[in-house]
Amino acid sequence: MPSTERPAENLQDICRQIDDAKKEYDNLEMKKGESLRDFEYRVKRHSDKLLSLKVAEKVQRQLLEQGARDAEADLKKKLLIFEEPSPFRIRGWRNINILFPGGNEIPIVSRFFATNKTRSQKGKGFYPGLALLGISERISPATLGLLAKSAAAPGSIRDAQAALIDQGTDVSVTRISTAVRAAALQARSLRANDSSLETLEIQ
Fold first, then answer.
1. Could you tell me which residue, 178 or 3, shows the higher pLDDT?
2. Helix (H) or strand (E) holding 106
3. CB 10 within 8 A of CB 109
4. Residue 200 phi, psi (nearest 5)
5. Considering 37, 65, 90, 175, which has the largest number of Cβ atoms within 10 A of its Cβ?
């Protein structure tokens, strides 16, 4: 069983960042010569950061719970398909940056499952705890939905990027395209009643 020292330390770091973000938010004041519009956007950036950190804290805390480990073990069994024993092995805890609302990337430490691959395929695998929480392509569920919906509007993906930036979410065209593909895959899996999309309720 991998040690929980790394995720526990990351949880403490996130909590410290939340405390700092709260203080910064509470101390926000309009600067001399600053327009109300600019102040509104500055407040939104701080509130988005606080929101992202709070969600990240919940995610990291959940990944440390025994319930998450049990759910990961069940998922591992579901992925056996025709192979026995399971081809997946726990490769310990790994850092992964997750994109949260407002375009904020927060590091999360999650267990990593991988198969016994050749050297050229080394490192390929997935994060079962994140998958069970609905996190796909390193993007939180709400953020993925926002990016996909923005790209679904008339116009190009670059138009969607510009609209998102104007709303305070600065993401790349590649990230938006990835979100669109992930959302489409989820939709197809839901229509097919794919059990792999079952999610874990945060306690």
1. 178
2. strand 104-115
3. yes
4. -95, 130
5. 175
Amino acid (1-letter code) at residue 195 = S
**Three-class DSSP category at 12:** helix
Burial of 137 (0-12, 13-18, 19+ CB in 10 A): middle
At 23, which helix (H) or strand (E)? helix 5-26
Closest CA to 93 of 49, 119, 130, 145: 130
Cβ neighbours for 143, distance < 8 A, ≥ 6 positions apart? 99, 100, 101, 179
The answer to whether 96 and 106 have CB atoms below 8 angstroms apart is: no
Peptide bond into 85 cis (omega under 30): yes
Residue-by-residue DSSP string for 58-105 = HHHHHHTSHHHHHHHHHHHHHTTTT-SS-SEEEEEEEEEEEEEGGGEE
pLDDT per residue as tens digits for the range 150-198:
777 656 777 777 877 777 777 777 877 787 777 766 665 544 455 444 5
Distance CA 77, CA 70 (A): 11
- pLDDT number for residue 120: 46
Q: Residues 4, 49, 65, CA angle at the centre, nearest 5°?
A: 25
Can you tell me the distance from the alpha carbon of 79 to that of 69, in angstroms, rounded to the nearest whole number?
15
The tally of CA atoms less than 13 A away on the side-chain side of residue 134 is 16
